[in-house]
Write the structure tokens for this entry.
Amino acid sequence: MEGTPEFRGFLAQLLGAMDSGNLLAVTSELTLLETLAKPLAENRGDLVLKYLEWIQPARGLDVIAVSRSILVKAATFRAKTRMKTPDAIHLATADSANCAAFLTNDKSIKGLEDSNIILLSEAVGL
């Protein structure tokens, strides 16, 4: 997040909508693992604390546990598309929470007909 200046305005709007209660975002607890790994490896305690503060249940954000049913759904997605395990878990989490859309900047996440996958780069017009 800290390395993507072209997305800052769009992400600020999303965060504002979340803070005001106009948007409910959903993420998997897996997001915590993925965001903490690099700052921990680089001894960036400031970023570790920031991510720990941001990625927790709050107004406008549900953080969903990785449950058995999500893992089974993720396995189904992997079987259909051969997507990577973390991607399948994130998509299964969104599907389980009945999300209207799945926002990502990972171009490799695709292939599911019923999923409204929105690429961040396309949303900002890049």
Q: What stands out?
A: The chain has one domain: 6-123. The chain has a mean pLDDT of 90. Residues 24 and 58 are 10 Å apart (CA to CA).
